[in-house]
Design a protein that fits this description.
Chains A, B: Pfam families: LacI, Peripla_BP_3. Two copies of one chain form a homodimer. Chain A is α/β, with parallel strands linked by helices and 341 residues long. Chain A contains twelve helices and twelve strands. Chain A binds a DNA duplex (16 and 16 nucleotides) through helix 2 and helix 4.
Chain lengths: 341, 341
DNA sequence: TTGAAAGCGGTACCAG
DNA sequence: CTGGTACCGCTTTCAA
């Protein structure tokens, strides 16, 4: 009849240690000065019983959960999993639990998730990218959740932002194109919905004029459709363009807003008989792992995903300890020169 | 002084509805026959107050949480995020919350995570791959958690398994190599720690003899080192081999246990001046998205990640509703013929 | 059909 | 330093 190996509770520990549950709680949390003897006794019992505090009870009472909600656009572009990967490792190390949600680039779904999250146990919510979700963010704030916006700029008060500097490296990129003799530079991009993409577009225009190139609306290519699959989209999009415009009427170099987009684009280019970087040079953003394993190896503007993950966690940690942190954290980008330009 | 927009509780709803909290609970959960009038009144108040039940309190009391722990090797190989992606979407749809953990191919860490999980609020734990963790699984079972093993076979009782049929497609793959005239087939693999890899190795040997090839221990290449980065590992590993053995002493075709491994391998091959599929044919496993965008496009054995994610969720759903489900679910693999062989 | 009350397993406050 | 105890917000008997 001793089959029911149910969970050990603090009460059992208290009884076996001949103290009250309050005391046990104190030795566990260090919330009161307990004598060395009692401390040792209690700890011994904890060991013996293999007692682990019930997180649910703990957070019900303390209103703190060490749980963070992590909201990503999706998990297919390896950019996000890389950030997440680093983050969850730090989190585990420090006993934070991370709940994961994907909003699939949909505002509606993003809002739904936020609504959901506002009634749930997390006390910090991280949103990567996202837009048009201010109502949701305010809701979260009302419920006393902390919110962190990543890879995104915002002026909302009460939220922390962490994002890449989208202006510096693109200047180097355009300068590189110039030095390689490319005549005209186009911009091939995902829809300009997220602030990071908007910034890149602005940075692109600035770099163009800084390097003496003219900006032509005609050479901006916004690759529509779902953002779910940049790889496939980039491929179809460029294939389409090549059906309609020949090389003469196209830029001979492109800044692409993501590596995946670039890889898709390059495949389309090659299938139409063009060489990269011979006929067209391409520099993209991200530096995901595969970038150095495709042909040609991508020249790309790195946004260090590991750094982002780590910084994000530091932020979470600081916030949950009520430490003072800067509202805005800016991470550098870095031009990685390989073969595509 | 009405600033503290704190969360609405069931007590407030009860007071405003002039009933007791028990009654409110019953109308929310349908756990007792409440009169239409009272039901309507309570629901109206719930609307007005925008009341959302506190999940923490609810699960403390009911010992059910609709939370599932999802344990993956890591998030860098896009195989896992793809499964996860599908899973979290289904989960969200049905109001399940998923906590994510990465064990980074380390048994120790896997055990740590499990230990952690056993004291936490999840009631179902999904483990993808993993090994040597039977103690952890039993611990989970002791704590009355359900456990699901994915992409892995096990005979442990009380756990559900869902995995791919690792025997059929590889036979087709080897037959294809035969028909293309490849003379000798090697096996380039990650360490044989996981059951899926072991099965592939067995399937490989069976396929070899079925197609009239001889098996040579010498042509089995186990790519050691960390499994974290198959791409980089495959590259270094094959580079090394090519330093020591020339084409004559090597198989002219390879079965690789993952696409990433194959992509790394192919780069090494090409850097040494070899053509794929001219000099060497390669067929790998997974069919991750990038597989059709690298050069050459990979001929690969698809393991449908979306299907795995979906099936996994169905399993979770069935288990959490105490429905009867088969202990073992087998998913088919499928040979996708492209250019690498 | 509804009310009353006992906890779930902890934390935190107050006494002594 | 340690004990006692009132909750956290909800579910779940048990009575009425």
């Amino acid at each position: 009849m001793k089959k029911k190996s149910n969970r050990v509770t603090i009460t059992q520990v208290a009884e076996k240690s001949k103290v009250t549950i309050g005391t046990v709680s104190h030795v566990i949390n260090g919330t009161a000065p307990i004598s060395p003897e009692v401390t040792a006794r209690v700890q011994k019992v904890i060991e013996e019983l293999n007692y682990i505090p019930n997180m649910t009870a703990r957070s019900l009472r303390s209103k703190k959960s060490k749980q963070v909600g992590f909201l990503v656009p999706n998990l297919n572009n390896s950019f996000y999993p890389r950030i997440l990967s680093t983050f969850i490792n730090h989190a585990f190390e420090h006993e934070f639990i991370v709940q994961i949600f994907g909003y699939e680039y949909s505002v509606e779904k993003e809002l739904q998730v936020m609504n959901n999250l506002s009634s749930n146990s997390v006390d910090i919510v991280i949103i990567i990218n996202g837009m048009g979700d201010e109502a949701g963010i305010n809701r979260l704030l009302d419920m006393h959740k902390k919110v962190i916006l990543a890879d995104r700029f915002s002026d909302m008060k009460g939220v922390n932002c962490i994002f890449f500097d989208n202006n510096q490296a693109i200047l180097e990129a355009v300068a590189l194109m110039k030095s390689k003799g490319y005549r005209k530079i186009g911009f091939i991009s995902e829809p300009l919905t997220f602030t990071n993409i908007q910034e890149r577009f602005a940075g692109f225009q600035a770099a163009l004029s800084a390097c003496g190139y003219a900006f032509a609306e005609d050479d901006v290519f916004i690759c529509g459709g779902f953002q779910l699959d940049a790889l496939v989209n980039g491929y179809h999009y460029m294939s389409n363009i090549l059906e309609k415009r020949d090389k003469k009427h196209l830029p001979d170099a492109f800044i692409a807003t993501s590596d995946l987009l670039a890889i898709g684009t390059i495949r389309a280019l090659r299938e139409h008989g063009y060489q990269v970087p011979g006929d067209f040079g391409i520099i993209s953003f991200d530096n995901i792992e595969i970038s150095s394993f495709v042909n040609p190896r991508l020249t790309t503007i790195e946004q260090n995903q590991t750094d982002m993950g780590t910084e994000l966690f530091h932020l979470v940690q600081a916030i949950s300890e009520n430490k003072n942190v800067s509202d805005k954290i800016i991470l550098p980008q870095k031009l990685i020169i390989r073969d595509s330009c």
